[in-house]
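Protocol step 4 of 6: structure prediction from sequence.
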Amino acid sequence: MLKKILFLGLIILAGLLLILAFNYLRFAAPEQASPFATEHLYTAPEALSGALMFETISHKKEMLDVDAFKGMKAYLDSVFPLVDSLLSLKAINTHSLLYHWPGKAQDREAVVLMAHMDVVPVEYATRGEWVEPPFSGNLRDGYIYGRGALDDKGSYVSILNAVHLLLEKGHQPESDVYLCFGHDEEIGGDEGAAEVVAYLKKQGIRARLVLDEGGLLTQNIVPGISRPVALVGISEKGYVSLDFTVNIEGGHSSMPAQKTAVSTLNEAIQKLEENPLPSRLSAPLKGFIEHVGPHLPFTQKLAFSNPWLFKPLIFNVYEQNPSSAALVKTTQVTTILQAGIKDNVVPSRAWATVNYRLLPGDTPEEIMARARELINDTLVRIEIHDDFRIPASPVSDYRDPRFTYLQRCINTVFPEALVSPYLVLGATDGRHFYEISDHVYRFLPIRMLPEDIPRLHGVNERISLEDYNASVQFYHTFLKNLEQLKHP
């Protein structure tokens, strides 16, 4: 009997190994289409240096520095005069800019290229840590320094530079092109990109492809991959914060009640922390595995080629690092906690705010319902913070010819790069454009090393001259070859 059991076990094991080996051997990345032809371009990095001098900082809309935005536009008009003179311009809420470049084929849906002109503030305490002043645009050791060099004036000026080069040669795109440059992306884009979309929708404009910032050309960032990986965002996470408030009569600390506002709130927060949202493979991560998994070392490739068996292991690996954990789950974290005014007074009110970043498929309403069910305490009032919520964006198809077109443009400039779908963890203006397009993608054509990531919104933000030139080359390639953008 024992021999039969062992024999049966060996058969099962052999069958399992055959299945694993079969899946491993047939696990191959999608074939990447051939790049376009390249040409040498004379770019204008000094234009970016000048644009970085204007403090187009996003504050509340009533604090907007009108002169900074006007000054930057006037400066770039002088550097790229053909853009200003040959393309029609519609100003949206005064400061967001929408350029229209008519195409040859009037029956095709438009293409939208995006960037934003606003930047985040520079913390006063960190100004002394910059090797060049944050609004100088100074050149140092082959890099242009300044707030916005990466996020997102680098792409804004690169797009203008590429368009100007094409206009100099009399080029007309295959289909209508709209250039959308928002002025308030860093504070939500409600006055900029959202209003641009409302205008285009009113005009009956549909976009067959929208390209914004958000994805990255990474180097030595994806574990197990030594070659550059171009991460093209096909979706972005949603956003909601919940306020948890407890009101219980307080009093003197010498006679505390058994249940206080603070202890009740603490119990509620503890329940949330003990019950994180489960990890799962969203569509963008499945696309990432499909494109990157076959290039990983043996162990990782074996796991990714057999997720039906190794999914718990995959999740465990991802959950070890905050940035990768955010790719497999809707995150929750307490960001505000307040109670009490004096050490000998039991507070009658305690409240906390918990922030959630939502995977595609999760909604703010489901998060609210889940929190209420978990806490299950009538003493805890749960509300959406500031009544502000953003669902995760729809997912753009990475098997579509439009994604292939982006891959060809990327590999024209970065031939060694592996191009893959990706989930954007933050928010971009691109999310507004699903109103007029099912194909919204996000990619910043600038190489990012691990040490460059903290520069985004941080100290010593910079871009190399080489990367600026590559960025112009990318947008030039994208616009010049639109006749190759096939319909499905």
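Step 5 (inspection) to follow. Residues 2-25 form the longest helix (24 residues).
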